[in-house]
Structure formats: C-alpha cells, structure tokens
Amino acid sequence: MDITSVRDYFTCLQDRIVDELEAVEGAPFLRDAWERPQGGGGISRLIEDGKVFERGGVNFSHVMGEQMPASATAHRPELAGRRWQAMGISLVLHPRNPYCPTSHMNVRFFVAEKDGEEPVWWFGGGMDLTPYYGFEQDAEHFHRSCYAALEPFGVATYHHFKGWCDRYFFLKHRNEARGIGGIFFDDLNQETFAHCFALTQSVGDHFTDAYLPIIRRRNDIVYGERERDFQAYRRGRYVEFNLVWDRGTLFGLQSGGRTESILMSLPPTVKWRYDWQPEAGSEEEKLYTDFLPPRDWV
C-alpha cells in the first residue's frame, strides 16, 4: 500500500481536469486551499457564473480522524472506533445551457487503522451523467467511455459497475433515477492494491473524454425560458439525492468536513413544483420515458 502515490495521482488528476475545463470555459477556476482542524485539508477549484458552467467544482481532499463516522461504518460495523484517512477527487459540473448535462465524477481511497492489526483499505468512485434533454448519441458516447475505462479489468466489470450505478443513483422516495447512470464502485479491495489503484486511475483518466465532447457538441444549442425552467426543476432532483441519499455527502458532514466544499455539488438555481407532470409528447416527457429508465447504452 503506497498512500503517497495515491495522493500524488489525485493532485495531478485535479490539475489535469481543471486545465481542460478552463480551456472549455475560457476562464480560470478559483483556487481555494483549506485546512481541517481535526486533521488534513484540501484544495477546492471552483467556477461560478461562467459562460459554459453556471457552477463547477473539482475538489481534492485528504482528511483524517480518530473515530470513523457513522456513515462509514453503517455497512462495515467491524471498523467502528478505528483511526482513518480518506482522500480523493470529487467533481460536479452544472452547465448553463439546459441541453448540456450535469456530470459527477469521484475517485477516492480510504484507510482504517488499528494498533496491532493490518490496515484495512479500499478504493471507490465512478462517474455519471444527468441530462435535462436526452440525446442517444450523448448517452452512448458517455457509456462507451465508461466501458473503455473498465475493459482492461475484465469484460464483465463495466456491466457490474453500471448496474451498481443504476441502483445507487436512484431516488427511492420518487421511484426515479437521477440521470442515465454511468459506473459506480465502492469497497474495492478484492484484488491487489496495484490492481485496484490502476482501475481507479483508469476511471479518473477517462472522465474528460467521456464528458467534454458532449459539452462541445451541445453548448451552442439555442434555448429559452422553457428549457431553463425545466432544467431548474430537474436540478431539484439532484439536490434531493445529494442531501437525502448520497453517502459521500453524509460522510463529509458527519466527519466534520468543510461544508462549503461538500455542498459545492449543489446547483445554483433550483425549482420545485407541486405534483407537476411534463406535457404529453414533449421533449421533457421523453427524458422520463426514454432516458431515465435504466437501459443498455453499449
């Protein structure tokens, strides 16, 4: 286990992704380095009110503590009471144009330690796409990129992680998917450290190839108030998932994480309506009927 190599990879990945995003945006991202009183710190890279990204953030953090928070031990109670370290990259991008999808990517590493015992480590992460107006070309491209990231690690890996993503990014209280999925994995330590680290790196390295061609293809589509209104309504689903179901958000808040960096994932403008339904035969309805139900895009 080489914690230094993992940290070096994450910090370099943050720099590479931000460089590519700045080239698309045509403006720099804010850089905000911070320290956590309980131990550790991070670097938040953020843009707000951009021409392309209404809000976007690419966060690196490396934090530690003496007691595992409840969200981290809910599925692994045997780790309660251990010292821990967590590090990773977490990004969320909310474009201004409603024809451009929101996207999220996360790659992370966790270590739980106890005197006299071997450290327990694992990797996790994934990437997913949340369109407001669906395009089959975009969905297929994004999922083919996810497949390419995982193909070197076994032909069944993509399908396993794709199904995991469909189940995870699901609003149980709405009986509705958040978006069109992608890939998701957690507790990855079944192979060697080198194998798990290489898989995690491949996911991180494929994100911009998966997402930025979609932004370039859709960003110049003309839109109006109707599309912006529907985008704000669907962003409400994003907020609901992150605040009610997302384990990463809960872990960050329960572990005394930096609130500004954790809630950076939320979109800047959101709307809710009471018992609203899209107009029959509309492009808005098509999102619900043709894109949100899980399907095989590869």
TrEMBL record:
Q: Which Pfam families match?
A: Coprogen_oxidas
Listed binding positions for a divalent metal cation are H94, H104, H143, H173
Query: What is this enzyme's EC?
Result: 1.3.3.3
Task: Give, as in the UniProt entry, the pathway in which the protein acts.
Answer: Porphyrin-containing compound metabolism; protoporphyrin-IX biosynthesis; protoporphyrinogen-IX from coproporphyrinogen-III (O2 route): step 1/1
Q: Which residues constitute the catalytic centre?
A: H104
Q: Where in the cell is it found?
A: Cytoplasm
**Superkingdom:** Bacteria
Give the protein family. Answer: Belongs to the aerobic coproporphyrinogen-III oxidase family.
Annotated function:
Involved in the heme biosynthesis. Catalyzes the aerobic oxidative decarboxylation of propionate groups of rings A and B of coproporphyrinogen-III to yield the vinyl groups in protoporphyrinogen-IX.
From the Swiss-Prot or TrEMBL record, give the protein name.
Oxygen-dependent coproporphyrinogen-III oxidase
Q: Which organism is it from?
A: Sulfuritalea hydrogenivorans sk43H
- Its gene is hemF
